[in-house]
Structures are given as structure tokens and as C-alpha cells.
Amino acid sequence: MTENARDLPARREAQQRADDIRVFRAELARLQAERVVDLGADAQQAILAHHAALLADYAAAYDIDLDGRGRQLSLGMRVASFLGALALAASVFLLFYQFWGQFNETTQVVILILSALASLGLTVALQGRDGSGYFSRLAALLTFTCFVLNISMIGRIFNITPTDTALLPWAAMAFLLAYACDLRLLLAAGIVCVIGFVAARVGTWSGIYWLNAGERPENFFPAAAILLAMPRLALHRNYAGFEATYRVFGLLTAFIPMLILGHWGYGSYLDLPARLIEGGYQLFGFAGSALTIWIGTRRDWPETVNTGIAFFVLFLSAKFYDWCWDLMPKYLFFLALGLSAVLILLVLKRLRDVSSRAKPGESR
Q1: What DSSP string runs through 111-179?
Q2: Apex CA 260: angle with CA 255 and CA 263, to 5°?
Q3: Contact 261, 267 (CB under 8 A)
Q4: Residue 329 gets which letter from DSSP?
Q5: Residue 318 to residue 321: CA distance in whole angstroms
Q6: CA pair distance 50, 5, nearest whole angstrom
Q7: Which among 259, 163, 265 is positioned nearest to 210, based on CA atoms?
Q8: Contact indicator for 17, 58 with CB cutoff of 8 Å
Q9: Taking a C-beta distance cutoff of 8 angstroms, is the pair 199, 209 a contact?
Q10: In whole angstroms, what is the distance from residue 176 CA to residue 116 CA?
Q11: CA-CA distances (angstroms) from residue 167 to 89, 144, 202, 211, 346?
């Protein structure tokens, strides 16, 4: 791991301290204006000098945002980096297909290998020199694109039968770059590759061609279990947002098949009547989304709470449609749906109030 990667935790702590200083200054100014507290000139000067020295040290050691304007510019830089990576990836992809037929097989293989190695070398070089991380992340996305093209195009050159095992090296490269460059977008790409591989492999064990694994939504449940277990099996304290990404993708991989099987029981492996299968998965969907909301609230996982709420509303809306769409006027249907949303809001507000009273001294 590069020196820049090892500095990631310290850089996050420095950014958090700078944010705390900015918030402290704003709140102190309000308290003094409201005459709640009155610090003497010497005390204020000592605090300002200490904070100025800290911020100067952080600015010299790390590329952090010292004020709100800097945070806005950093957000713009992240967007520009993402769009630039997409544009470069599209450029490489179209360049390959534009001139590919003009080269012989040996030249094609050499170009593929050199492009992958060159982009990887560029990423490593930028990772050691780019304190902000924006350029190294852009290069990492380009490296992943070149690697995917490498595997897929070499398979075509040598007429290799497409197989789900190609997803494994893609996932490995995505995870390697994600953890090296602290890039959640590539983490998501690696997770998608893992989901596809696990579902395809489970499908082949059941006698299904791997490209048709999606015809049995239950093939995705093992991948969901793996993703939900990942934050427990691996330490991600040095990678902000990685645990949340695993949890969200795990929940999506679990709830989307439940939502499908709740209305298409014929897609299940279970040798039971389709109506019974649909009812069971609808029940599991309601119970699972409610449990997700409760766990997310207890653990302070906002992304888990939001995902659980979204799927609870989806399951509820689908059930309302099954029950009431043909039985009541459409305005009453949407009125009942709106009142259900209001009821959910009241329940969540109640949960928030209870949680706030249980932890009065904690900032949420």
C-alpha cells in the first residue's frame, strides 16, 4: 500500500478537525452575540492562534478543505473527476472498436496488455504524488475500464467461450483499486461483479445456464448474505463509507428478489403453489424491511434506515395495488396510499423522538 493510502485515516481526521473548528467558531459567535458566554480578549486570541496553527499544519500536510467554499469546490472537483473518468473510459472503448480491425492478432494482444499495464502504472504513480486523490481516482477508473476491455477483447480474439469466471478478475481489480484509492465507485463495481458471479454460479449448480441466472431471483440471496457479512468480516475503519456501501448493496440484493418473487411465485425454486410463495415473500419483505429500519435506527446507520423505508413503502404500495386497485375509485386508492405514507411518517417520528430521549447527550 502506498504512502498516500496509509495517510488516508490521518487526512480524514484532519478534515474532521477542520470542520469542527469551523462549526465551533460559528457557534461561539452566536453564543457571544446572545450574551450566553463572554470570553476575554486573551482567551479568544489564544483559541484563534491555536486553531490557526492547527489549520496551517493540516493545510501543509494534507489537501483538506478549510472552509465552506473549499468544500463546495471539492464537490465540484469530485464531479469533474467522475465525468472525466467516464469520458476517458468511453474514449478508450470507442478507440478500440474504431481501429481494432486494422491490427493483427499479435498487435491486438500487445495493445491490450500495454494499455492495462500503462493505466495501472499511471494510477500507482499518481497515487504516490496526488495528495487530493482526484487525479489518482480518475486514473483508477480508467485502469478498471482498460482491464475489463483487456479480458473481454482477448476472449474474443481467441474465441474463448464466455463464462462467469471473467467476473472474478474484474471484481479483484475493482476491489484492489477501490481500497488503494479509497474509491467507492469502484467498490460498487466490484460488488456488482461479485453479485453477478455468485448468482451465476448458484444458477449453474441448479442446472441453469449462467447468463439465465436472473430467471431465478433466489440465486441472488447467497450474494446478499455475503455482502451483509462483509462489514463484520473485514475492518473498514480507515475507509469511510465502505461499510455503508456493502450494507446498501446487500439489502438491495436481498429485497429486490423478494419484491419480484412476491408477485411472481413461478420464479421460485420452491415446489409450492405460486400464490403461497408470493404471500410468503411479501410477508418476508414487510418483516425484513421493518427489521432493517429497526436495526439501522439502533446502530445509527442512516443508509440502512433509508433503504428499509424505501422497500417498506414499495412492498406496501404493491400490496395496496393488489388489494384495492380494482375495488375502489382511483382517487380513493391514492388517498389511502397517501394516508399510509403519513402514518409511516408518524411512526418514524415517534421512533426518532424515543431514540433522542434515550441518548440526550449525543449529537445525532
Answers
A1: HHHHHHHHHHHHHHHHHHH-SS-HHHHHHHHHHHHHHHHHHHHHHHHTTPPP-GGGHHHHHHHHHHHHH
A2: 125
A3: yes
A4: -
A5: 5
A6: 28
A7: 163
A8: yes
A9: no
A10: 14
A11: 19, 12, 14, 12, 44
For the chain, the first-to-last Cα distance in angstroms comes to 34
- Residue from 176, 172, 92 nearest 140 by CA: 176
Neighbours of 195 (CB within 10 A): 23
Note the pLDDT tens digit of each residue in 126-147. Answer: 776 765 667 777 888 888 888 8
What is the grid cell recorded at 35? 450574551
Identity of the amino acid at 157: I
Half-sphere exposure of 287 (CA within 13 A, CB side): 7
- Tell me the pLDDT tens digit for each residue of 303-315: 998 999 889 888 8
99 Rama class: left (phi>0) / alpha (psi -120 to 50) / beta: alpha
pTM score of the predicted model? 0.76
Cα separation, 78 vs 84, in Å, equals 10
Is residue 308 a contact partner of residue 293, using CB atoms and an 8 Å limit? yes
C-alpha separations of 7 from 33, 65, 73, 239, 347 in Å: 39, 16, 22, 11, 43
